[in-house]
Amino acid sequence: MVPNSSKPTVIIIGRPNVGKSTLFNRLVGKRLALVDDQPGVTRDRRFGDAVIAGLEFQIVDTAGWEDEDAESLPGRMRKQTEVSLEGADAAMFVFDSRIGLTPLDEEIARWLREQAVPVILVANKAEGSQGDAGIFESFSLGFGEPAAISAEHGEGIADLFDHLWPIIGAKAEAAEIEAEIDEEDEEALLAGPLKLAIVGRPNAGKSTLINRLLGEDRLLTGPEAGITRDSIAIDWEWHDPRSGEDREIRLIDTAGMRKKAQVIDKLEKLSVADARRAVDFAEVVVLLLDATRGLESQDLRIANMVLEEGRALMIAINKWDVAEGASALFNGIRDALNEGLAQVRGVPLFAVSAKTGKGLDQMLGGAFELREAWSRRVPTAALNRWFDDALEANPPPAPKGKRIKLRYITQASIRPPRFVVFGTRLDMLPKSYERYLVNGIRDKLGFDAVPVRVVLKSPKNPFQKD
User: What beta strand segments (E) does 192-323 contain?
Assistant: First the structure.
């Protein structure tokens, strides 16, 4: 087994004295492993951080493979080498190209062919033309063209990169992205006040709703549309009846958003722009509907704007105390939302009344749950287990007979959750397959109605000419 690491792991395997430790030292850039002409100097596995032209990976030096009794010291060293392959992403099988293949090299090759780990054949000590005969002979092992190098002189490292990159490039770039993520403390994020913005068309009852929550006439209300002009933030504590705890909320009231063609007054334009900025600062946004008017096209425009900004969205139908045909109205709005917000199905929907207080505790409890999903980070191992299952259940297509290879996925950020998929020929991947991945992330990994971003990326080979 190899230590826990998000970087890909590469194992160096070979018989004694072929230059494994010299190659290890070359790749880590330090003299960490003892090197001597005497075979068998390395007895235990040695781990190091290797880099070739920006390709970072974990390298493991192993004891020389010897054909000895399992209970002897060389036999136990060989067992260590066999165990080291478990969990590795690739194996570099090193042989001495000046000497050529030996029976022990062929025995190692037979064993490696039975393993599931990709093998890179490395012809060491190939400086000049001294190793040409051994290189040609090595094609008989069935691992393809070897990487011809001189670990001692540093020759052929670019050739080694070209062999490694197709196998571990995607995972290496994913690990680099993970390392760049600002490691925000998820518990601290969720412990802070919930930033909750209330948006909607004019006169949907936003200010009345906030006054009801606060238990006081804090905001000016009335039958005239557009009374609220500035986005107003109010710090408040909500008593959660489920847990009995007081939870901090920053309530943000916003100006009503009318259709752009109807926004003529300069002051109203500034108010709508201010409401958009309030959405940017919010964590969860409640789109308030008027039960007496139902769902209108402007509501869907506002909802799409919130989702495009990456905020967590929920819908509250206000004035439920005067709604007619309540059950049919609720179901009709639910169906219309599923159709009009196809990119995020199942947005939380609540029936509330700012006048009576109906449904407000349920709405606020749902807002905290939605923030938690919006802030969730999936462990890389669990994420890739889901990814492998998704690819097996529905493999990517092969347009014009060209296979699209999806290699690896990582979560690059939270709030909103953003995922990066690495592979080849990604420009040919149909949008329908991207939607399949997004829906799978949402359904299987607990993101529900949260806006999810998926980015496709092909690792860049620095040695490849444009």
Answer: 194-200, 232-239, 246-253, 284-290, 312-318
Q: What six digits make up the tokens of 6?
A: 């998000």
Read off the amino acid at residue 229: R
For residue 422, the enclosing domain spans 380-457
Q: How far apart are CA 150 and CA 154, in angstroms?
A: 6
pLDDT tens, per residue, the chain with 466 residues: 444 457 899 999 998 889 998 999 889 885 543 333 444 433 346 788 898 877 889 998 887 776 654 444 344 555 666 777 888 899 999 999 999 999 999 999 998 998 889 999 999 999 888 789 999 999 999 999 999 999 998 899 888 988 998 888 878 777 766 665 544 556 666 778 999 999 888 888 888 898 888 886 543 333 433 433 344 678 889 999 999 999 999 988 776 554 444 444 433 343 345 557 778 889 999 999 999 999 988 888 888 888 988 999 999 999 999 999 999 999 999 999 988 887 787 899 999 999 999 999 999 999 999 999 999 989 888 898 999 999 999 999 988 888 898 988 988 888 899 999 988 889 899 999 999 999 899 889 988 788 899 999 876 655 565 4
The total of other beta-carbon atoms located within 10 Å of residue 365's CB is 17
User: Amino acid letter at 329?
Assistant: L
Residue 3 CA: distances (Å) to CA of 55, 82, 115, 338, 359: 19, 15, 20, 45, 51
In this structure, is residue 145 part of a structural domain? Answer: yes
Mark which of 180, 201, 225 sits at the end of a domain. 180
Question: Looking at the structure, do residues 303 and 452 belong to the same domain, yes or no?
Answer: no
Total tally of structural domains belonging to the chain: 3
Residue 313 and residue 415 in one domain: no
Residue with tokens 């002009």: 229
Q: Which residues are annotated as a binding site for GTP?
A: 14-21, 61-65, 124-127, 200-207, 253-257, 318-321
Reduce the DSSP state of residue 387 to 3 states and report it. Answer: helix
113 in a structural domain: yes
* Backbone phi, psi, residue 412, to 5°: -85, -25
Residues 137, 368: Cα–Cα separation, whole Å: 66
Output the known binding site. Answer: 14-21, 61-65, 124-127, 200-207, 253-257, 318-321
